[in-house]
Amino acid sequence: MIASPMKRGKAVNSFRLFSRRYRDGFLFQYKAIKSVADWTVMLYLIIPSLVIGTMIYRSWWIDIPDWVEQIPFELFYLIPFLYILTGYFRTCLLEADQVFLVKHQRLILGLKKWGIFSSYAGSFLLTAAVGGLIAPFWLNHYALNFFSFVVYIVFLLSSKWSHMAVKGVLAGRKKDWKRTGLFLLAILVQLQLWGTAYRLIAAGFEIILLLVSVGLVAFSLFLNRKRIFSKNSMKRNLHIEGILKVKWISLIFMFSQHVEKQPVSSERSKPRLFRKSQRLFKRQTPTFGYLELFTKVLIRNFTYSATYTQSIGVLSFSQIVLPALWLKLGAAALVALSILVWNEWIWEKLIIKHPIGSKYSVKAEFIKVQSITRTLAFIPYFVILAISMLRYFGVF
Questions:
Q1: Is the dihedral of CA 175, 181, 182, 184 positive or negative?
Q2: By residue range, what is the domain housing residue 304?
Q3: What pTM value is reported for the model?
Q4: Is residue 257 part of a domain?
């Protein structure tokens, strides 16, 4: 991709190289989407959805839907926060550039700059689309002025840029508790900034919020400049490019139940809990053996426990923020479904789809343990829901 034009005597500049790689990446993603969205899906699902979605969006400007009246402004203000947590700044590097970098460092630096710039431009357009989507509710339903809305979108964009830059720095770190802690700290800092932005908008200090946004943009530029000129960021940049390249393929695989998925290997490390793997239960029965396996895996593996914690956190947040009873119960039903799926997912990983443990999946003890863990998982769920209902009906 680099050497062939130079062999023919043609000069290759960084922009031409970036354009070619960006086009190749776009075609790769297009083929991945086209593999599941053929002409029948386009004709009967995607195109009608776009037409109907356009008509619904137009109706929002004419008459605000009834369901929005049940959503307080504080919750509506925080919904786009989920949007800033996605995405990376890309550099359009390839594996072969680790060799090519030695002789053509200026070309690689230019390629990095164009890649970072394209990420800024792409996130700008996407944020503008998000702003256009929420504009009818912000301006018509909540009756806030246009300048406040523009300042909010500017803050949304700067917040996304700063978080994308921080994610780019953390992507090169080894997956351990320190990286997880730094990532959670970054999210907490963003939440604090969003709370400050809400108070500034409510108080009419939009100019101060603009200055905060400028600071966030400068922070993202500072971190990205280090990524561009650092000679030790090649591995990190290639890791990010690998994630972005297969993002649509991973999404397709996630929703494909009958497609065989290659297991992802991870570096083995000593667990911080139960290092000597002593028994948790004195009774030695198959039921207690399954429970011990479930308990140790749940505590050792952050992914399993974090998914359940997120579900309980969403339930607590929805019961506190949502005003209407039907919204509270609807959110609780969705969380209940997620807990059921979570329980089945863990047992599939441990036993059902395990090459050795699959033969135990039909045992009566295993089926009994599945129902036990399902019941235990719902205890915090029903406690939170009961407290919410008692508060809603004024019992306390």
A1: positive
A2: 270-392
A3: 0.67
A4: no
Do residue 229 and residue 274 come from a single domain?
A: no
Who's near 110: CB < 8 A, 6+ residues apart?
Answer: 13, 14, 15, 17, 18
- In the numeric block, the tokens 């990095």 are attached to 112
Give the count of beta carbons closer than 10 Å to the beta carbon of residue 162: 25
Alpha carbons within 13 A on the beta-carbon side of 245: 17
Average pLDDT, 10 consecutive residues per value, the chain (396 residues): 48 83 87 73 74 86 80 83 89 82 80 93 95 90 88 95 92 76 87 90 92 95 90 84 77 55 53 59 77 81 80 84 81 91 87 75 83 92 91 78
Q: Is residue 149 part of a domain?
A: yes
If asked whether residues 274 and 208 sit together in one domain, one would say no
The upper half-sphere exposure of residue 163, i.e. CA atoms within 13 Å in the direction of its Cβ, equals 25
**DSSP single-letter state for residue 231:** T
- Among candidate residues 201, 202, 222, the one with its CA nearest the CA of residue 210: 201
For 63, phi then psi, to 5°, come to -145, 120
Asked whether residue 154 is assigned to any structural domain, the reply reads: yes
Claim to verify: residue 141 and residue 59 sit in the same structural domain: yes
For the segment 292-342, what is each residue's pLDDT rounded down to a tens digit? Answer: 888 888 877 777 788 888 888 888 888 877 777 888 888 899 999 999 999
Q: Nearest 10 degrees: CA dihedral of 68, 74, 78, 80?
A: 40
Residue 53 within a domain: yes
How many domains does the chain fold into? 2
pLDDT tens sequence across 263-291: 555 555 555 555 555 666 677 788 888 88
Are 238 and 304 contained in the same domain?
no
Same domain, 158 and 208: yes
CA 109 to chain centre: 29
Structure tokens at 33: 């989407």
- Secondary element (H or E) of residue 131: helix 105-136
